[in-house]
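Self-study notes.
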Amino acid sequence: MIRARSMRMTKIENYPADKVEDAREALAKAHARLVRAALKAGQSVPEAPALVVVATRFRSRCRVCKMTVEGFAPASHRCFAAHTSNDSWTTVELVGLEIHAERPALAGWEFLACVEPLDGGNLIRQVPGAAVVEGELTRWRDRAIGCDHCRAARWRKETFILRADGSDPAIPAGTYKQVGRNCISVFLGGKSARSIVAALGWSDVVRGAAGDEDEGEGWFGRARVVHAPLTFLTWVACSIREDGWVSRATARAAADQGASRQATADHALYLLSEPFGGGAALERWREDRERCAPTDAERGRAAAALEWARTLAPTSDYECNLALVARQAALDPKHAGILASAVAALNRALGHEMERRRREAENAANPSRHVGEIDQRIGLDLLVERVVETATEFGALNIIIARDARNNLFVWRTGAIGAEPGERLRLRATVKKHTEFRGQVQTELTRGSVLERITGPASTFKATPSAPPSDKPAKARKAKRPRAQADSVMAA
């Protein structure tokens, strides 16, 4: 019967990280078949092989010239003058694996290899962990396939090479036998050889779970594409700049109503992945990338959002997930929606912090008051508290909430101008209406024109009071006649 041997190890390098669980499932199924065969033949049940991840790495390849580099391609890297890394690199996550499995052996014999005839010679698949010296199996590479047991002259799909280990006195140590697949059970005294055959192919099972290897590049073409978190968030910030923030929930709700609205996270992934096939799709992609091209402002915003998310002290399930995803070395596309929300979440957090500071600093005796008259053009010096970035069917919309030095609250909805919490704006705008929100009166503005921007800590804000209402007289409104009066005139 089969003797238990020490566990032997086989290495597999540069394996697709997202296929590891598939490989473990394939090994489990193969081991289950082996167990059933062993029990049916009265053999001892072999131990299940263990698949261990020993290393993780990232590899980037240029889609244009096929240059490959370890890790993420640096933003300034150029493989040719004609294209940059921002346009042409794909990054995948790969792992190094070890298969720990029991090496099969029969009393008196060791299984060394499986010989498979191919055009031009024989393929020899060595048993993982078998003690074979270099050149020991060379004789079977070119010789005709035969069976030392039945000696029948016929074509065989595969045969097995065995070597006597000297534990049986009747068999001299170092004796070799080549036995055909159909004869192996007879050679082993009627015992099933399925467990031996299965144990020869543990590494084949693992490789098969990820598909065949690409020549020269491992499984690059089949591995999951990942992205550098900072690069992804940069394109998220660019998408928000152009189209406003759209969550996946908002995109799904729009789809349910028959509208078409792409989530910001999906748009950023689209901008990072050049479409295959060329033609009109490639041209549209290039135009969209040019429209959303990053500036230093978006790069800085992305860096700030990533740093904030990584150092976040979570107070909710959402923040726990966001912090965990942000701390990963690479972004799995299935987590893109969570990480993309960091840009908008940071804006909200900054706004809440500004609100907290204001409430602590402001005296209840100095409440907000309405400023100006409806339709009046006035000059203002405001400190931005919060910015709500959203999307409409007409494009991006920024809702800027700000205060003047007298603590008066202003709301400005604009699609053309963005702002950051803590930024100081000097502008001219028209009073749209006077409203109240959550117990505070506020002045809503429209048709604003920014005259000056001043960035810096909120503590440096020393605004001058808002311009007096007489800055520009309000437009005269046409008096509305009562409907009854209008009807009487028409009747006349």
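Second protein, same conventions, sequence then structure:
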Amino acid sequence: MGRLIGYTIGEATPLRATFIAKEVPAVGQYVTLEYSDSVVLGMIQSLVRGSVSITSDMYDAEAVERIRLLDGGSGHYVKGSIKILGDVESLRIPRTPPPPATEVYEADPSVLRRIFGAGESGIRIGVLLSQPTVPVYVDVNKMVSRHLAILAITGAGKSNTVAVIADGIARLGGAALIFDMHSEYTTAEFWGGVNVIEAKINPVELSVGEFLRLLNIDQSSFKQERYFRMALKEARRRLLSGAIHPHQLLDVLCRVLEDYAESDRYRADRSSIMSVVNKVEGLLDRYAHILDYYAPDVVSQLELGRVNVVDLGHVDEDAADVVVSHTLSKLLSSRKGYVSGGDGLAFPVFVVLEEAHILAPKGRATLSKYWISRVAREGRKFGVGLCLVSQRPKALDPDALSQMNNMIVLKLVEPSDQRYVQEASEVLSEDLVEQLPSLNVGEAVVLGMMVRVPALVKIDKFRGKLAGGDVDVVSAWRKCLSAAQRAAVKARELDDILESW
């Protein structure tokens, strides 16, 4: 047993107890109680401090001052609530509540190390906030099979958390695939190195839906979609017959459309057809840097023991949507093929989607949103895990978020974001939600099947270098000033100093 913290008071349930403290503990601290012939683990979820003599209905400051001098703090008290987590051996919830005056002890670090220990499939992500000597490991098997959401405001430590997890997976010899929206991870110093994969698109392999997204042909433009489908079908027929080379596909598609426009049969729809021609030519101009008829498939470039990064920093949201959806569909199909005994990718993959609220937005359809939902439902059986990372939880599709059975929630300030996350999660309690605004950078609530009990964790600092982070704006400005401009700034600063004297 650790040191005595206090005693239970009042009424208790098998899940919750109130206690009076002998000394001030911390919210999130683990405690043990001994009753019903077992030692039970609990977590302090709330604390209040008060005074029996200085109450909230006092209105005289001088009276408060006199009482403060007289009692010297002897009338102060600290009360709190404990959430019962279960027997320390099995974590089964007792069937009876703790009796009044049950002693509450600080949990022994050896007990916590056993609960948050590595196991055969664990990676370390940090230490307990209340007991920094206790490292916290997450079960990678349950993280990958049950998916993960990493949520926080900007600057709270999401990228660092992703880097710590990806690095841990690489150290296990696994495969993490990060879709990097801001080129943060391309030069990171991961264990085993980074396998940077270019965001290239082979037009021959794109689906009709992916083409329509790049062409910005929406569902209301049914005539444009119809003629594009007809022309693409004809161009692909010529490709399969050997009449044209793959790199001629889009040029031939434009010529087929122009033939339609000149045909008497389709003359009434000439304006719609020529709009499609313009959009195809615009696609060739806008995405020339990512269109590559000889680009290898992303799935075929994945490597074990390294962090695989698809660099999306130089593409717009439409192209990112196409690259992500195309890769997810190929990845799921490849893993299905391998698991069923055929050809396919031989190893599981954990996919990290940065800016998930852009790829799977609430109230708007995207190609990635469909495949994120598919992978979330089916990926468990085929070894494809998802990690959705977002600083705008309420803008994220609720169906996608609800299928993330593990969560790492760093600082969240806005109440609407907090409520949205709680509604989407079955494991985030009201007590833990109340902790989110008070978390410091790098501190998180970690919960779900990948940990045995919920935890407040200080996430480890990633040892390698990341490209992200806040820019030192003033230093950047001064660096770009000419020598004469810098001298003028110094002169103005000197004038200000002299004037203040």
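Instructor comment on the second fold: The chain has a mean pLDDT of 89.
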